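not sure who needs this but someone in the group chat was asking about YdeI/OmpD-associated family protein from Marivirga atlantica so here u go. i didnt clean anything up, its just raw.
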Amino acid sequence: MSSKNIETYYPTSRADWRRWLVKNHETEQSVWLVFYNKKSEKESISWSDAVDEALCFGWIDSKKQTIDEFSYRQYYSKRKSNSTWSKINKAKVEQLVKNGLMTKSGLNSIEVAKQNGSWAILDKVENLTVPKDLKEALASYKNAFEYFDSQSKSNKKMLLYWVTSAKRPETRQKRIEEISELASVGKKPKQFR
């Protein structure tokens, strides 16, 4: 995600961002959007509206970078076909469909996700369903399952997402082992402490 050849765009309104997407969503791969906070007193699109419009065109937000005390920029790009869909974004697109705002590209990104499984992959995380392989690993360490089960919903979701989001089976297994081993001594992996 090198910033060198990526356009930076400052939309002053939702309509302004939508116009950019209409013109560029098929030819550009990504853009940095500039947002201003209320202290700046500059006109700015809200993050929620920016995400809504991006979803309409099959795009998604990701990395955020602070520019100064009044502004930040966020990276928006075409959604990859295997990109997972959060509960929030699924609810957003449901409303956008009802409101007739989705474009062909946006609807296509939903259809592709439903066909390849990326649409539903986070449902089990949202429902706090512990996958069989993690359950078995936790059971193999004394006190591990009890510690895992005692975590808050948000902590469990983070850990379940970490397992679910692994791209390779070896990575998934490594994460499961780390969670289980540390849970047996009452700890979470370092990045979740």
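also The mean pLDDT is 96. if thats useful
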